[in-house]
């Protein structure tokens, strides 16, 4: 079941999701917290306007908390105890403007105290997509063996998530955690994506959705449509699935 968190616009969506993110990760970081019971959060980031906007807001809030000092304590994320993964990546090096990892580094990761070895990228542009997918599965099994504490997702107008598109091969993958996509209908065609077996091991799955062109897909997500038709409907958390939805994308609910 999807919990609907409706907001007025994308700015309120970003603000609400950022505060909820801090609350959720701070809870994971309590002694013995999180899926792995080690107080270390495993988080999957997403791109897109709302996804990158959220990362920028997290960077701003982290800076503001540091500036105010110990006399005005604020709930914060301890970024030294976060492992970051990516829901999908284009077949480009991280220095390319289209790289999801590169955008995340610019928006957030270069501005907080996350150890470099805690940033788990796909290394695309250096190795083949099939090898990258296999290696990423190994990375997940090593550093997030119990799953993810939080998986963030954007959504396309046709309901795609990560690089899982309607009726594409990746929507039917039921074993591997990562999948090489050679024919994405949204350019660029070559990508590697996390699959449902990886997504649905997440304790929390949060969708960040704004824009009137996504209203039909949002309605199908809430209604629990068939995943092969509307891929977003196939993603769910083991404990919660939350749709942060701007009013512009809620016209068909």
UniProtKB/TrEMBL annotation:
Database matches in PANTHER family: 6-PHOSPHOGLUCONOLACTONASE
Domain Glucosamine/galactosamine-6-phosphate isomerase: 9-241
Organism: Corynebacterium minutissimum
Keyword Hydrolase recorded: yes
Protein family (similarity comment): Belongs to the glucosamine/galactosamine-6-phosphate isomerase family. 6-phosphogluconolactonase subfamily.
Statement: the UniProt record of this protein carries the keyword Electron transport: no
The protein's enzyme class: hydrolase
UniProt-listed InterPro entries: 6-phosphogluconolactonase_DevB, 6PGL, Glc/Gal-6P_isomerase, NagB/RpiA_transferase-like
Protein name: 6-phosphogluconolactonase
Pfam families tied to this protein: Glucosamine_iso
Annotated EC: 3.1.1.31
Catalytic activity: 6-phospho-D-glucono-1,5-lactone + H2O = 6-phospho-D-gluconate + H(+)
């Amino acid at each position: 079941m999807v919990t609907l968190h409706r907001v007025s616009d994308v700015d309120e969506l970003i603000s609400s999701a950022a505060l909820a993110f801090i609350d959720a990760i701070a809870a994971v970081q309590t002694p013995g917290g999180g899926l792995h019971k080690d107080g270390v959060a495993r988080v999957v980031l997403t791109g897109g306007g709302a996804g990158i906007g959220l990362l920028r807001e997290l960077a701003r809030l982290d800076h503001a908390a540091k500036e105010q000092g110990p006399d005005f304590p604020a709930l914060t994320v301890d970024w030294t105890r976060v492992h970051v993964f990516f829901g999908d990546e284009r077949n480009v090096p991280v220095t390319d403007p289209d790289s999801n990892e590169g955008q995340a580094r610019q928006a957030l990761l270069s501005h907080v105290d996350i150890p470099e070895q805690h940033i788990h990228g796909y290394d695309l542009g250096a190795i083949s997509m099939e090898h990258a997918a296999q290696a990423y599965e190994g990375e997940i099994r090593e550093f997030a063996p119990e799953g993810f504490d939080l998986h963030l997702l954007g959504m396309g107008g046709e309901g795609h998530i990560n690089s899982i598109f309607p009726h594409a091969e990746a929507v039917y993958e039921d074993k591997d955690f990562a999948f090489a996509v050679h024919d994405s209908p949204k350019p660029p065609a070559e990508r590697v994506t996390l699959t449902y077996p990886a997504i649905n091991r997440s304790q929390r799955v949060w969708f960040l959705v704004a824009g009137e062109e996504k209203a039909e897909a949002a309605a199908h997500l809430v209604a629990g449509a068939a995943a092969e038709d509307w891929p977003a409907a196939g993603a769910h958390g083991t404990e919660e699935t939350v749709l942060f939805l701007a009013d512009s994308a809620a016209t068909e609910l």
